[in-house]
Design goal:
Blueprint lengths: L14 H16 L19 H15 L4 H12 L10 H28 L5 H17 L7 H11 L1
Helix pairs in contact: 1-2, 5-6
């Protein structure tokens, strides 16, 4: 039998719940704000620098006063500049990343070219044949000839 009593409203959050929610919102913002003293891209969440401590105190105070996370971000950016916020990749970081990527590709191509020249421009099979011929000459002399079947077996061993 269904009860005809109206559904009860959930009780308002307790002070401990409000504090936990506020602390979580503050920690989320701490992870988005760069420490201006550290210079290593560290967030204020774990920095021990005096400025980071002040920023954490400021963020908590603004959240306790009822300000939104966006208000806090805007205020911090206005006071310390946009670079203090971790907001994706800025243009300079993207430029550096592309430069590193292009430089890495150039180095890789240069190394591949150098290794190819060292190998005499041969394929793997050509290198195996050259190695078999050199080993044969060294161990058995110039007059020894391998049969095609023996050569295939040696190539299999060298792989």
């Amino acid at each position: 039998m269904a009860s005809s009593a109206p559904a009860e409203k959930p009780p308002p959050p307790r002070d401990a719940d409000r504090e936990a929610l506020l602390a979580e919102r503050a920690r989320a913002l701490f992870r988005e704000i760069r420490c201006v003293e550290c210079g290593t891209g560290q967030t204020i969440e774990f920095s021990d620098a005096p400025t980071a401590k002040e920023l954490r105190k400021l963020v908590r105070g603004m959240l306790q006063a009822g300000r939104s996370a966006e208000d806090v971000r805007d205020y911090v950016a206005q006071q310390y500049g946009e670079r203090v916020l971790f907001r994706g990749v800025d243009a300079r970081a993207a430029e550096v990343g592309v430069t590193v990527l292009i430089g890495g590709a150039a180095v890789a191509l240069g190394m591949a070219s150098l290794m190819s020249r060292r190998a005499g421009g041969m394929s793997r099979r050509g290198r195996y044949r050259k190695m078999i011929n050199e080993l044969t000459r060294y161990g058995l002399g110039d007059k020894w000839q391998w049969t095609p079947r023996e050569r295939r077996g040696l190539e299999q061993l060298l792989r």
